[in-house]
């Protein structure tokens, strides 16, 4: 859909003719200048304010919501225009589209929102979180390349770095304790290492990375910093803390509905442009295309992400405190005894909380499974399911599910106990109603070793 702008809003308009002004570049997938955190110090540290400053795109007939551009291919008025589009002279910056694997107006609008959310110049949305991660790494690393990564990562990412990239691309990874900055520094080989990769809040152990310090170390060595911020949207803004690239599985908190699979790459415009290059771009050539209908659905959910994250985090904090008071071994970054509690406080965006996830270590897989069975099937506290960010509480035993790609030694090094139960805390029902369900299941365990204080 063509558009014109007025006071930051976007209105329907006619497609430009392919005239001389078509050479003026202002890429659509780049964040509008009003979206960047440069106008007000308050906006720099508040993703909600940044999202509100992003331009609003109306529908084709003046609807308050944008239209869905569901076409796979696009027509032009003149044959010469098609040639110029393939030559790179005309593109989505001037509202010329070829094919939706390249660019799609609806998907580009979601990209603008993601760039605003993370405070980056540009963003491109993909078909899944893993496609975003793999595309970034393949763009930044060539055959013979090297990645330094946290040893505590989502199992799929760990498998990509451990098995697939070495076999298929001759890209190797050195895994380190991301909290040991000397180890990180020593693992980076100048002239060989391309990327430092870690999660802002690790899956599943909820270890918080020191993003400013790690970024400083990496940049001193001349390498890029890629951060997976799936666990902490709104809570942390890695790019504002020094990271170069932020990746997301939008399927989680950002979606909130457990009904779509999607990802995003947020970073410098130069990187996103290179990833869409016709000859060398990882996104362009691998084709992890997001469906326009999915992009539309997600664009309608991002505006209330801040409200949802506040409630997820508030509930998680309340449960973590109460479970700890019962004597359970709880891992939650909002608790003062968490090793990185003060670090997270120093980095976090104010008023969004500390995380919507918590972990309880049941020590053995048998007890973990027993607790989850009671929580789902007897007290209706939540569901046994992977993923996170849903309005219902989702819980899984990480060692045998989302981290199952790691062997026993790797899980031990990552701090993943066999009985570690990861809970993505939902916000359905009242807090007291859901706490009563959780508490009943805990006491129904009838296991004196469950509570260290009894």
Automatic annotation (TrEMBL):
InterPro entries in alphabetical order: Cys/Met-Metab_PyrdxlP-dep_enz, PyrdxlP-dep_Trfase, PyrdxlP-dep_Trfase_major, PyrdxlP-dep_Trfase_small
UniProt GO BP: methionine metabolic process; transsulfuration
GO CC entries: cytoplasm
Keyword annotations: Pyridoxal phosphate
GO molecular function: carbon-sulfur lyase activity; pyridoxal phosphate binding
Chain positions with N6-(pyridoxal phosphate)lysine modification: 252
Pfam family, one: Cys_Met_Meta_PP
Cofactors: pyridoxal 5'-phosphate
Keyword Phosphoprotein: no
Protein family (similarity comment): Belongs to the trans-sulfuration enzymes family.
Protein name listed in UniProt: Methionine gamma-lyase-like isoform X1
Encoding gene per record: LOC111287425
């Amino acid at each position: 859909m063509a558009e014109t702008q007025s006071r930051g809003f976007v209105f329907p308009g006619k497609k430009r003719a392919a005239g001389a002004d078509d050479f003026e570049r202002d890429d659509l997938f780049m964040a509008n200048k009003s979206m960047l955190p440069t106008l007000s110090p308050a906006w720099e540290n508040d993703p909600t304010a940044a999202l509100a400053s992003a331009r609003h795109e109306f529908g084709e007939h003046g609807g308050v919501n944008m239209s869905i551009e569901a076409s796979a291919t696009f027509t032009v008025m003149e044959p010469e225009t098609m040639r110029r589009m393939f030559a790179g002279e005309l593109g989505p910056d001037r509202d010329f589209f070829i094919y939706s694997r390249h660019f799609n107006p609806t998907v580009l609008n979601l990209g603008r929102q993601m760039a605003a959310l993370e405070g980056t110049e540009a963003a491109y949305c993909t078909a899944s979180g893993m496609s975003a991660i793999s595309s970034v790494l393949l763009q930044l690393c060539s055959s013979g390349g090297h990645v330094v990564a946290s040893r505590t990562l989502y199992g799929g990412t760990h498998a990509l770095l451990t098995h697939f990239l070495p076999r298929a691309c001759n890209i190797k990874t050195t895994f380190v304790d991301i909290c040991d900055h000397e180890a990180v520094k020593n693992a980076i080989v100048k002239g060989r290492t391309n990327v430092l990769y870690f999660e802002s809040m690790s899956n599943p152990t909820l270890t918080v990375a020191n993003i400013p310090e790690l970024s400083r170390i990496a940049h001193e060595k001349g390498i890029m910093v890629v951060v997976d911020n799936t666990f902490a949207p709104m809570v942390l803004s890695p790019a504002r803390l020094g990271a170069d690239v932020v990746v997301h599985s939008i399927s989680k908190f950002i979606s909130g509905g457990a009904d779509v699979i999607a990802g995003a790459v947020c970073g410098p415009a130069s990187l996103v442009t290179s990833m869409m290059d016709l000859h060398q771009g990882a996104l362009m050539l691998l084709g992890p295309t997001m469906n326009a209908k999915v992009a539309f659905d997600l664009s309608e959910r991002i505006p209330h992400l801040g409200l949802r994250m506040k409630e997820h985090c508030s509930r998680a904090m309340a449960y973590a405190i109460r479970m700890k008071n019962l004597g359970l071994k709880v891992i939650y970054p909002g608790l003062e005894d968490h090793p990185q509690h003060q670090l997270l406080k120093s980095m976090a965006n104010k008023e969004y909380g500390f995380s919507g996830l918590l972990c309880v270590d049941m020590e053995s897989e048998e007890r973990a499974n027993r607790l989850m069975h009671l929580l789902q099937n007897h007290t209706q506290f939540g569901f046994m399911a992977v993923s996170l960010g849903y309005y219902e509480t989702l819980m899984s035993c990480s060692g045998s599910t989302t981290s199952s790609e790691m062997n026993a030694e790797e899980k031990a090094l990552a701090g993943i106990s066999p009985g570690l139960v990861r809970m993505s805390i939902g916000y359905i029902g009242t807090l007291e109603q859901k706490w009563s369900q959780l508490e009943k299941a805990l006491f129904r365990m009838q296991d004196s070793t469950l509570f260290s204080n009894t």
